[in-house]
């Protein structure tokens, strides 16, 4: 981070500023190549060994939060458990939460989508008092306007629930180059819709943080094309591009929670609507003043409510609140 290789993550701010002690994968035995059921079990076991020394335990995803919740229940441990729920309503998680009531081992669950909050209460049976909405973030120091000259370039990034087939149909005949950074650091196994054949004006491949920042800076338009989904897919890419002061087009799925305000901080289009996406891209390509207006408003919105500092502060508030609160009713 000091060398500008990657943005600041919230967990290091929590450690530096709020007295949180990290138990990350670097402290666990074995290779650190990605998530697996076994690695989650090892992670939970390591957390349980020293849990009596702490006021609160925070799981930053369901892959650790659900097995830890079951372990806390089985062992009768009452340490408040805060869980970040990225996507609670997947096919694999629903029976664990709804039928086996994993949430009984969780004092509070934070979600990045207000629609996920609604579904978790209505369909999974999680008490409303245990749920809270916390918007996601971008590091506005790493993702910042660079002053680079914009090119006839459209950039899309990410893998989870991406609809690159619709993007290909929309941009196939446009006089613009399209780069698709189709890898995912956080969800490398995530699936999306790819075209059967990539158009000749498309290039796709992996981009690390610095290359992605350079691509964002040179692009005229950033597109986050999504398949319909009920959680906040694509929010990382959208907020990164917004923080850089770029014009963003995002698919308006049910899981979107107001990060993009259509016509004010970006443009939204319906899922799977290639014609609408093409029209939005052409509209912005032809209007540099409109791109600048949207980009300025997008940058301001991230600074005002979606910075990594704001996100860390919100997480720290929940940790402090639970450190003095009694466990919520199951």
Features:
330 residues, Rossmann fold, six-stranded parallel β-sheet, 2 domains, single chain
Structural write-up:
This protein has helices spanning 10-18, 37-49, 62-75, 94-99, 114-122, 164-171, 209-218, 235-243, 274-285, 288-305, 308-324; strands at 57-59, 81-85, 108-111, 131-133, 153-157, 177-181, 202-205, 221-224, 248-251, 267-269. It has two domains: 10-137 and 308-324, Glycogen Phosphorylase B (Rossmann fold, 3-Layer(aba) Sandwich); 153-305, 3-Layer(aba) Sandwich (Rossmann fold). The protein is built from eleven helices and ten strands. Strands 7-6-5-8-9-10 form a six-stranded parallel β-sheet, with helices on both faces. A four-stranded parallel β-sheet has the order 1-2-3-4, sandwiched between helices. The chain starts with 9 loop residues before the first helix and ends in a 6-residue tail after the last helix. Helices cover 38% and strands 12% of the residues.
